[in-house]
């Protein structure tokens, strides 16, 4: 009897999938990028404009580099900017970044429940893998999808979420996405997926709209749904 009960509980999310963003959702890491932006621009005598971080939040790495060069009339190439940012962030992601509260426990419970898990991120492998290893979540995921895998299309389009569902072998309607950015939440909804929003300070300005659009909102993964 106990074995049957255990088996039933372990399969409550069979055939379902959860797709997670990293920065600002699973990882409490947005402060790292804020500091990188501040340090990077201060080296060039530039103060970070109020709208800069919000504007680049949903872009992929190269898009941010190209936008930054254009906005501030920099002489750097996109490759030079990305290398500099990567070097500044690599140590922080491998040693300082932490998981959002109860994220590790939540991933473990979803995995036990029979759900398939994917990461959908703009982070390059040099940052995401050390960070995921550092906080102890790397082995939970069946699939990791990057914006690079969808032709550098950012999260302002649903491509990355649809590819994650395809690689997991599930229908978009059977996926629940966890995101912190309004633009990304819109895209996931456009893909036909349920969306839970994780609060992050970087999205404070958009929080009222996020609350209206998302299927649910979180400040802590202890509040996250157990059934997808």
UniProtKB/TrEMBL annotation:
Pfam families: Hydrolase. InterPro entries: HAD-like_sf, HAD-SF_hydro_IA, HAD_sf, PGP-like_dom2. It comes from Bifidobacterium hapali. One of its GO terms (molecular function) is phosphatase activity. This is Beta-phosphoglucomutase. It comes from the Bacteria. SUPFAM superfamilies: HAD-like (SSF56784). Transmembrane segments: none annotated. Gene3D superfamilies: HAD superfamily/HAD-like (3.40.50.1000), Putative phosphatase, domain 2 (1.10.150.240).
């Amino acid at each position: 009897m106990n074995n049957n009960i255990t088996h039933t509980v372990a399969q409550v999310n069979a055939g379902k999938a959860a797709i997670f963003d990293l920065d600002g959702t699973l990882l409490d890491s947005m402060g790292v990028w804020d500091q990188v932006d501040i340090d990077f621009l201060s080296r060039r005598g530039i103060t970070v404009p109020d709208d800069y971080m919000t504007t680049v939040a949903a872009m992929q790495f190269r898009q941010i580099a190209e936008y930054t060069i254009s906005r501030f009339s920099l002489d750097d190439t996109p490759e030079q900017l990305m290398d500099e940012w990567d070097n500044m962030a690599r140590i922080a992601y491998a040693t300082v970044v932490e998981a959002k509260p109860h994220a590790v426990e939540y991933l473990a419970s979803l995995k036990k429940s029979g759900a398939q898990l994917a990461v959908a991120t703009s982070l390059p492998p040099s940052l995401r893998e050390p960070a995921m290893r550092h906080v102890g979540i790397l082995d939970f995921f069946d699939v990791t999808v990057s914006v690079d895998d969808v032709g550098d299309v950012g999260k302002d389009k649903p491509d990355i979420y649809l590819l994650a569902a395809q690689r997991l072998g599930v229908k978009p309607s059977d996926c629940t996405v966890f995101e912190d950015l309004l633009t990304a939440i819109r895209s996931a909804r456009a893909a036909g997926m349920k969306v839970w929003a994780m609060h992050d300070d970087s999205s404070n300005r958009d929080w009222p709209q996020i609350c209206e659009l998302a299927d649910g909102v979180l400040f802590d993964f202890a509040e996250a749904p157990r059934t997808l």
